[in-house]
Amino acid sequence: MPDTSSPMTSPAAQLKLVGGIPCLDFVNTVGSRVPSRDAAIRRGESLGLEIVDEKLSTYDDLLSWSRHAGLLPDTVVRRLLAGARHSPRESAAVLKRAVAFREVLHRIFIDLLHGRSPSRADTDLLNREISIARSHQRLSAATQGYAWMWDTDAALDNMLWVVADSAARLVTSANLPRLRQCAGHRCGWLFVDSTRNGSRHWCDMKDCGNAAKVRRFRQRARANKKS
Ligand SMILES: [Zn+2]
After folding, report:
1. Per the CB 3.0–4.6 Å rule, which of 17, 68, 100, 148 could disulfide with 13?
2. Domains of the chain, with CATH numbers?
3. How far is the CA of 166 from the centre of ligand 1 (A)?
4. Is 83 exposed, middle or buried (0-12, 13-18, 19+ CB in 10 A)?
5. C-alpha of residue 18 to centroid of ligand 1, in Å
6. What is the tens place of the pLDDT at every residue in 185-195?
7. How much is the pLDDT for 16?
8. pTM of the full predicted structure?
């Protein structure tokens, strides 16, 4: 089927940005992650989870999300869109790399959340993405001192540099203990809890928070009926 999605219409551009930082919003580019019913997946490397409703199915989805999440300005998005039309094979390879990177980030974050050491292979891949990102960073004179700037020539993997940089900051930051997974039933989204007392449970109170309230209400109603 021809790809008719555009950055204006992709479902990836409708996603809520509740992660607090780009690398977590990137990990949240799935409808949800749920325990798999497939025994092979449960035994596999993906933490026994499977993705429901993949939001990054095409390179345009990735681009669309990047603009939506504020990773890339419109001018760059337009240039990348044109570039992707000219290089379908390269853009498909970037999408594949992006999704693989996202899944590695997800595994690393879940490992860190549970106090486990991420695997060597996952750490190696994260390091590879970070070194690609770093090779596109330059110091540029600012009003005071210098600021880090990204290379301005549009490369198809431009958005992955920003994600890698965000992940590098998170895993080395004092904020890492603030990393949380939504407590919602069948959600799995990640976020940084920036509440003062560290009490945020939900990706979004309006979605998972409310759904949990409804579930509790129904459970109580059922229990009352039985007694
Ligand atoms: Zn949630």
Report:
1. 68
2. 11-226 (1.10.3300.10)
3. 21
4. middle
5. 9
6. 889 999 999 99
7. 96
8. 0.90
